[in-house]
């Protein structure tokens, strides 16, 4: 097995634990424990920590170790307001360069999302979230904006675990799926105003859910005053 594949496997394992809440925000992640669990040496684990730090999933503290990153209310506000700007820009630029092949790609993605949500089986939330990101990455790809796509991916990595928790709510999951179908219909109609409006609503509703779900390290609700500020910010943007 190549070293690169060991690193990738380690990253995937740690991402899965963080996203599913098996490793909690603020919890220390010990290099030797992960190496023993996966049956690998410590260098690949060290490399995995570097990649996860770049994604915003862990933080490294000198002489203390590696910890699962925590997101404050301010972090959530910054991430979601930035997502709103990036996603709406991508969707409007994509309409200018839309082709039949582009529509086919987006249709395929939304179709897979609907199959996951509307099927009889319990939805694979991690797969749904991958498709969610792929949809928005594809709009940036159609727009021909490589830097926009790269920044979107970086931002998405920072909220993976929170998105997983929010999409576990069936109502939010179904609402998210409907938004993607409506956004796609607006793109196909080349209706920039509607596509942008729907995209903004989609992201801001996700932000509201995150604000409602945010808890402190003791499991108590977030400070109501700050939560209200976050919700008002979402309504203003």
Describe this structure in words.
The protein has 237 residues and is mainly alpha-helical. It folds into 2 domains: 3-68, Arc Repressor Mutant, subunit A (Orthogonal Bundle); 73-236, GntR ligand-binding domain-like (Four Helix Bundle (Hemerythrin (Met), subunit A), Up-down Bundle). It is built from 11 helices and 3 strands, in the order H-E-H-H-E-E-H-H-H-H-H-H-H-H. The longest helix has 24 residues, at 73-96.
Low-pLDDT residue spans = 215-237
The CATH topology of the largest domain is: Four Helix Bundle (Hemerythrin (Met), subunit A)
Distance between the termini: 49 Å
CATH class category label of the largest domain? Mainly Alpha
Question: How would you spell out the order of helices and strands?
Answer: HEHHEEHHHHHHHH
Would you identify the CATH architecture of the largest domain?
Up-down Bundle
Question: Going by CATH, what is the homologous superfamily of the largest domain?
Answer: GntR ligand-binding domain-like
Number of helices: 11
In short:
It contains eleven helices and three strands, in the order αβααββαααααααα.
Strand and helix layout:
Layout: H1 3-19, E1 28-29, H2 31-38, H3 42-55, E2 58-61, E3 65-68, H4 73-96, H5 100-118, H6 125-143, H7 146-158, H8 160-167, H9 170-188, H10 192-213, H11 224-236
Antiparallel strand pairs: 1-3, 2-3
Features:
2 domains; three-stranded antiparallel β-sheet; mainly alpha; disordered C terminus; 237 residues; elongated; Arc Repressor Mutant, subunit A; 11 helices; 3 strands; Four Helix Bundle (Hemerythrin (Met), subunit A)
């Amino acid at each position: 097995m190549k070293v690169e594949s060991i690193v990738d496997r380690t990253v995937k394992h740690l991402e899965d634990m963080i996203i599913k809440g098996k490793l909690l925000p603020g919890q220390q992640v010990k290099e030797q424990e992960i190496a023993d669990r996966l049956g690998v040496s410590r260098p690949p684990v060290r490399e995995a920590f570097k990649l996860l730090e770049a994604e915003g999933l862990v933080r490294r503290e000198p002489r203390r170790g590696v910890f699962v990153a925590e997101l404050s209310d301010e972090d959530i506000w910054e991430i979601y307001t930035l997502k709103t700007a990036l996603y709406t820009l991508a969707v409007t630029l994509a309409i200018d360069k839309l082709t039949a092949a582009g529509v086919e790609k987006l249709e395929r993605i939304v179709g897979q999302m609907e199959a996951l949500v509307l099927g009889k089986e319990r939805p694979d939330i991690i797969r749904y979230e991958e498709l969610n990101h792929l949809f928005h990455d594809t709009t940036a790809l159609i727009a021909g904006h490589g830097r926009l796509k790269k920044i979107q991916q970086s931002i998405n990595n920072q909220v993976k675990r929170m998105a997983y928790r929010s999409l576990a709510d069936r109502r939010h999951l179904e609402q998210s799926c409907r938004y993607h179908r409506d956004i796609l219909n607006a793109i196909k109609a080349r209706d920039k105003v509607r596509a942008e409006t729907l995209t903004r609503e989609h992201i801001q509703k996700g932000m509201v859910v995150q604000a409602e779900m945010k808890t402190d390290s003791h499991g108590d609700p977030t400070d109501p005053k700050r939560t209200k500020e976050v919700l008002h910010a979402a309504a203003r943007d």
